[in-house]
């Protein structure tokens, strides 16, 4: 999911917090929106950190070189 999921949660949370004025008994839509925005921000930060770590890897090639000993005279 990563970056796209984090952005989606941020947008959904902002819509629930600031744009929806309906009321459902026993459900605070504003609070659910803030929770979604917090989860989206956390998801976005974690995705960026994980992608930065993935890009920071290095690969080394190991080449084995074996010389045969000179023939005994």
Describe the protein.
- The protein has 73 residues and is mainly alpha-helical.
- It has one domain (3-55).
- The chain is built from two helices and no strands.
- It has helices at 2-19, 29-55.
- Helix 1 runs antiparallel to helix 2.
- The longest helix is centred in the middle third of the chain and has 27 residues, at 29-55.
- It is rod-shaped, with a radius of gyration of 27 Å.
- The mean pLDDT is 88.
Low-pLDDT windows of residues:
none
What is the terminal-to-terminal distance? 68 Å
* Radius of gyration from CA coordinates: 27 Å
Strand proportion: under 5%
Helix content: 55-70%
What is the mean pLDDT? 88
| Strand segment tally | 0
Largest sheet: none
Count of the separate structural domains: 1
Task: Using the alpha-carbon principal axes, give the shape.
Answer: rod-shaped
Number of helices: 2
H/E series: HH
Q: Class by helix and strand content?
A: mainly alpha
Organism: Cellulomonas gelida
Pfam families: DUF6458
Keywords: Membrane, Transmembrane, Transmembrane helix
Protein name: DUF6458 domain-containing protein
